Structures are given as C-alpha cells and as structure tokens.
Amino acid sequence: MEDKHMLMIPGPTPVPEKALLAMGKHPIGHRSGEFSEIMGKVTAGLKWLHQTQNDVLVLTASGTGAMEAGIINFLSPGDRVLVGCNGKFSERWAEVCQAYNLNVEKITAEWGKPLDPEAFQKRLSSDTNKEIKAVIVTHSETSTGVLNDLETINRYVKQHGQALIMVDAVTSLGCVNVPVDEWGLDVVASGSQKGYMIPPGLGFVSVSDRAWEAYKQAQCPRFYLDLGPYSKSAAKNSNPFTPPVNLIYALQVTLNMMQAEGLENIFARHQRLSAAARAGVEAMGLPLFAPSDCTSPATTAVAPATVEAEQIRSLVKKRFDIALAGGQNQLKGKIFRIGHLGFISDRDILATLSAIESALLALGHDSFQPGAGVAAAAKVLP
Questions:
Q1: Cβ atoms of 299 and 337 closer than 8 Å
Q2: At 352, is the pLDDT very low, low, confident or very high (cuts 50, 70, 90)?
Q3: Residue 178: what pLDDT?
C-alpha cells in the first residue's frame, strides 16, 4: 500500500506529524526577531536535553559533521589522542583524527563487544607527562548495538586531569541518560535524525568551559566548522551562517514533545522497547549480536544462523514495507538491526516482530512456535 512505509532503523528515525506540519510552514528570515525568539526557545530546550548549562551549538550538518567539529576545534596537529574503536562509527573518529594529523592511539574491542574501561585507565595512568590531550568515545555504537560504559571511562579521564573527554552521543542523546554537567563531559556531539525525531540536517555540539580554554590554543584548520562564531551567535539567539529554518521549526516542536514526556520517561521508554525487541527476537530462536549487559537502547542487532540476514530484511520490506537496517563493513550480510530510537512506540515493536516472524516462516525458519516473538515482547511491555 502506498505511503505506509515504516522506518525501524537507527536513523533516520520516524518524524511526528506535528513536526512534519511545522516544516511545511513558510520560512522566515533567519536574521529576524521572530526567528531569534524561536532560537532562544530551542537553545533552552537543547540545554535541558543535554542536562547542561554549557553552550549547545547548532550546525547545519550531520552527526559526522558535529563530531568532526567537536574534534578539530580543541586540538592541534600532533596532539596525542586516545580513540575507542569497537565499530564502524568509532573507527570513523580515528580516521577524522588522522586526517587532521593528530597522533592517534586506538583502544580496540571486537565488534559486538564493549570497550574495556580498564584499558583506558591503564593508558591514562601511564601518561605521567600528561601528553594525552583528548579521549574520544562513541557512547552508543550503532553499527553493533553496543552501549559503551561512558561513565566509567569518563571517570578515568577526570583522574588524568588534563585530557578532554569527547563523546559521540549521536544515538544516545534523547535515548539514554547523558548528564553532561554532572559527569563533566567536555564535548558531546549528536544529530537531528536520531533521538531528536526530525529529519537529517542538524548537528549539535555541547562545549564545556575546559574545552573553550583548549580552543584558544587549538591549531587545526577550520572555517565553516569553527565553533567560536557559533558560540558568539548563539549568545544572540542567532547563527553565523544560514540555518535550515524549517528544520528549526520542527526541532522546536519535538523538543516541546520531549519536555512534556520528561527525561526519565524517555529513557524508560527506550529501555522498555529495547527489552521487548530482544525478548521477541530470542523467542524466535534468533541469536543476538551484542551481550545483554551492554546493549544500546537505540538498536537491537540480530545475527541469524539458519536464515540469511539480507533475506529477512528484503522480505520484511517487500511484504510489509518495514525497513530494517543491515550490517556494515565486515558485518554486511551477517546481521540485521532493529531500530527503536526516537518516535517509536510499543505498537511499532509488536508490528515489526510480527513481520519478522512472518518472514522467518516463509524462509523456512520454523523452529519456534508462531506468535512466540510477539508474545514474549508483549510480556515485557506494560
């Protein structure tokens, strides 16, 4: 049926109708008093979501652009940085650092496994000359469905005393607790097409006072992604360049929705949906890719053994017009991923599991009782 497409991937995520309608309004001048008033409200909402009094700067960019800005504004060529690598996106940040001639040291874990905080502690504690300038961590590694232990890693960074903590929170902001001020996170990057519940196009960077001190000495080349002008403009509820006005309209709507739901309820909803998805998948006899004690509330990665992952994705899309995400890089064809991030409800999880069950039966994977997946998920949901 036309116009019944359903996104169950970890980004882009579904957009509420109110936000879509807001985007349909006529744009206004981005230097007007009316737009400045909107930006003031949006900035206040972003600080609420980040649980911070720091700058939260809005870029016309994807999450990758926000993360690149977060790296290059506070470091100089030759600076020594630790980058945690256990998936596609965390490895990307090492590549960004190398592109700007930073001295990159990787702390790695097998894809599908969490980073070991003790490996960071060992490397940081041995840095008696305080040469490490930053530690870069992906909180929610979307490519594998793993949630890294940011809180513990950050605690070791704080014990070091000099290094900045830089966080890819692209699929954790608006999904799981990221208390920026309480933890003292220096740079936190995220993107609009995830927990913010609007289309791609906006990137966000939270910047601490410690990071701004480092900015004064940083020598990496930058122009459009130079966060200094963004900070000066943000203080005036403006932007140094032309922003996507209609995306800002949508963002105002979804931030209001999130504030009405409340942070604790948002986090609890994502945990509940994740638990339901995992219970349903296991009841169908499908192995999970990430361990239960480090799973991301944003996505569930599944590693089917008796049926090809791409066959499942293809049949679910063809029969039900539900999009599931595939594996990336070396995991291509080996896993599929169910996104439950942002504007996702209990109904969406049950519908998706039902579609997967139907596809499995059609593909000859019949070693489970029909309806078992939906029944197991329903027991998790209230």
A1: yes
A2: very high
A3: 98
| H or E stretch covering 78 | none
DSSP state of 292: G
In order of their start, the domains of the chain are 17-260 (3.40.640.10), 262-380 (3.90.1150.10)
- Quote the pTM value: 0.97
Render pLDDT for 143-201 as a digit per residue (tens, 0 to 9).
Answer: 999 999 999 999 999 999 999 999 999 999 999 999 999 999 999 999 999 999 999 99
Phi and psi of 67, rounded to 5°?
-70, -40
H-state helical runs in the chain: 17-23, 33-50, 63-72, 88-99, 117-125, 150-160, 180-183, 209-215, 227-234, 245-261, 263-283, 309-320, 346-362, 372-380
DSSP string, 199-255: -S--EEEEE-HHHHHHHTT--S--STT-HHHHHHHHTTT--SS---HHHHHHHHHHH
